[in-house]
Design goal:
By secondary structure, the protein is of the alpha/beta class. It contains 4 helices and 4 strands; from the N terminus they run H-H-E-H-E-H-E-E. A 4-stranded parallel β-sheet has the order 3-2-1-4, covered by helices on one side. The structure holds S-adenosylmethionine. Pathway: Secondary metabolite biosynthesis.
């Protein structure tokens, strides 16, 4: 590399190291994201009890990625068909099925892809509109029929958002 300007040399070096490290970094990423973390929550046992004891209790996981934590909660007793996950990247959910050797039939938790900040995905309720949070006489829509998260307002028993908030600025 004699004669190559130092800035170009550095740029090439960084780029080549990054290329060669990419598969390893991706493996590390998959390992981290496929590690169960929800059990680290101090109230985990109470959380699972809620799902096992309250009939039809809905669990909602924001930024669920491969669905690792959802799967753990289902394995511990929360009925899988009462669990809903959302993630901005739908490929993660597909990868989750491959990673855990499942299908939508063998693992019937519902996945609804979308950006949690997208108002067509979830229309938030302002403090003034709190009455909207109270369940009306209408029954909860079947999870499988949902095309957005908004109809779930007032029906969710527990929300899990693991390793999620640090991704965003405080304002967001
Ligand atoms: C660091 S991972 C955490 C995954 C998992 N909850 C865990 O604890 O291992 C963050 C996840 O949030 C998802 N995500 C990022 N921004 C999002 C958004 N605006 N709406 C929904 N999901 C989002 C990412 O695709 C990713 O799967």
């Amino acid at each position: 590399m004699r004669g190559t300007p130092i800035w170009l040399h550095s740029a090439l070096l960084i780029s080549s190291v990054r290329e060669s490290l990419l598969p390893s970094l991706m493996t590390v990423g998959v390992l981290i994201l496929s590690r169960v973390k929800v059990t680290d929550i101090p109230g985990y046992d109470r959380l699972v009890k809620l799902g096992t004891e309250r009939k039809g209790a809905i669990l909602f996981d924001v930024g669920c990625c491969f669905g690792t934590d959802i799967r753990k909660m289902a394995a511990d007793g929360w009925p899988a068909d009462s669990i809903l996950g959302t993630d901005i990247e739908p490929k993660f959910w597909e990868l989750g099925h491959r990673l855990f050797c499942s299908t939508a039939d063998t693992f019937p938790a519902v996945f609804l892809p979308g950006d949690i900040f997208d108002l067509t995905h979830l229309d938030p309720v302002s403090a003034e509109d709190r009455t909207l949070l109270h369940r009306g006489p209408t029954p909860m829509p079947p999870l499988r029929s949902l095309t957005s998260l908004s109809p779930l307002r007032g029906y969710v028993a527990a929300i899990h958002a693991g390793a999620f908030f640090h991704l965003f600025s405080e304002e967001r």
